[in-house]
Structure formats: C-alpha cells, structure tokens
Amino acid sequence: MKKIMVVMLVAVLTFSLSSCASKQEAGGLTGAALGAAVGSTVGRGTGRALAIMLGVAIGAQIGQTVGKYMDEQDRMRTSWVMEKNRTNQVSTWHNPDTGYDYAVKPTRTYEGNNGPCREFTVNASVGGKTEQVYGTACRQADGSWKIIK
Asked: Which residue has better confidence, 86 or 5?
C-alpha cells in the first residue's frame, strides 16, 4: 500500500500536465491512472480486478491531496531537472511558500519511441514525511515531460 501511495506522490509532484484542469483535478487523474497500473501489477488471478479498482480509488484520492499542494514553481523546477540534469545529478530545493522539500534525480536516460525518456527518483518531504518514489517520463513533442510508468 505504501508503494502505491509513493508512486502517486511522485506522479503528482512531478507532472501535473493538464492546462485546463486544476492542480487537484490533474493530480487526481494522474493518481487514478497510476493506481490502476499498480493495481494491475500487484493483483493476481480473480483479485486483480479488485486490486485495479482499489488502485484507482486510492490513487485518485492521494493525487488530489498532493496535487493541491504543489505549486507552479515546483513543477517548473522538476521539468528543468528532467530536461537539463545529467544522469545521477541531484537537484534539491525548498519551497518557502509551502515549506516542502524536494530532491529529484534522473537515474537513466534512453531513447523511447518518440524521443528521450528518463527514469528518475524523487524524494519529497511533505507535511514532515519523506517518501522516495521511482518513475519513468518521456519528453513530448511540445517539450513537456509525461510520466509513462
């Protein structure tokens, strides 16, 4: 369960992508999608459908909660790290408006079907709790980064 929450946290912290949705809505959508993916991975046999449904519900809730706290500056810094940092180069920052701390590190870069992709880790300290999450994002045609897993 903790891994699911951590995956949702990273997704929302790094890439709230929808320009027409609020941060909270974008976080919820991202969380639901990742929750479904995690549920599909951890579920077995007849319990797989239930794991997917739980993943969607839990992911959406976590994504909405975290999404409302991340501000535009944090998303811009994260995108900058994905675009400019060398592999294994960590960038950290403290957001004085929210009091949250972030450390983002691309861990592997490779060429995907439509351009560069990067595996990454994020350490996020939100509300006094630090979580480490892992993910993969690929650069889109418009230059933005989108989480693919």
From this structure: 86
Phi/psi for 144 (5° steps) reads -80, 165
Domain ranges of the chain: 2-67, 76-147
| Secondary structure letter of residue 98 according to DSSP | T
Read off the pLDDT band of 112 (50, 70, 90): very high
pLDDT of 104 reads 93
Q: Which helix (H) or strand (E) holds 4?
A: helix 2-14
Assess contact for 15 and 78: CB atoms under 8 A: yes
Q: Are 70 and 16 in contact (CB under 8 A)?
A: yes
Q: Cα angle at 15 between 113 and 52, to 5 degrees?
A: 80
